[in-house]
């Protein structure tokens, strides 16, 4: 699961979050959409895990993501858990690299707190997130 690939549902969720933020701010697939998703998660998760806890989670997600794609090699986690160096991503690489990184973070959260709590957290942040199929991360199609 983690380290070798992202589960398909985490990947779909990550894609949805990135597309939503890009559309909401008319960002296309710029690094800013990755920043917006990451920062919204960071602000909510700090209240649960603390600043150092989120930093550790984000750093682990980045290490695992770098195994999956070399596009993230210039990205680092700042002292507060924010991602640094996203502007180094080429336009064509942004969405796929962001999907890997955010998807890996979601996979880690799933391991630690379970998909029910993760999905509830995501719905608190993104109220427009579609409902999910019962007992899975699969989003219901409209």
What does this structure look like?
With 142 residues, this protein is mostly helical. 63% of the residues lie in helices and 3% in strands. The protein is built from four helices and two strands; from the N terminus they run ααββαα. The protein has helices spanning 8-24, 31-68, 91-113, 115-125; strands spanning 76-77, 83-84. α1 (8-24) crosses α3 (91-113), α2 crosses α3 and α3 crosses α4 (115-125). The mean pLDDT is 87.
Count every beta strand, where a strand is a DSSP E run of 2 or more residues: 2
Average pLDDT number: 87
Structural class: mainly alpha
User: What kind of sheet is the major sheet?
Assistant: 2 strands, antiparallel
Summarize this structure as a short list of keywords or feature phrases.
two-stranded antiparallel sheet; 63% helix; 142 residues; 4 helices; mainly alpha
Furnish the topology, listing elements before pairings:
Layout: H1 8-24, H2 31-68, E1 76-77, E2 83-84, H3 91-113, H4 115-125
Antiparallel strand pairs: 1-2
Helix pairs in contact: 1-2, 1-3, 2-3, 3-4
Quickly describe the structure:
With 142 residues, this protein is mostly helical. Helix content is 63%, strand content 3%.
């Amino acid at each position: 699961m983690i380290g070798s690939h992202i589960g398909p549902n985490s990947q779909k969720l990550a894609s949805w979050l990135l597309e939503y933020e890009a559309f909401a701010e008319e960002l296309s697939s710029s690094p800013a959409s990755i920043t917006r998703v990451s920062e919204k998660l960071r602000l909510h998760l700090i209240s649960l895990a603390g600043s150092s806890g989120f930093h550790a989670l984000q750093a682990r997600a980045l290490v695992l993501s770098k195994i999956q794609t070399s596009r993230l090699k210039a990205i680092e986690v700042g002292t507060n858990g924010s991602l640094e160096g996203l502007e180094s991503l080429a336009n064509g690489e942004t969405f796929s690299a962001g999907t890997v990184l955010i998807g890996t973070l979601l996979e880690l959260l799933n391991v630690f707190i379970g998909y029910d709590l993760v999905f509830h957290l995501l719905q608190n942040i993104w109220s427009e997130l579609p409902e999910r199929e019962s007992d899975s991360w699969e989003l219901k199609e409209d």
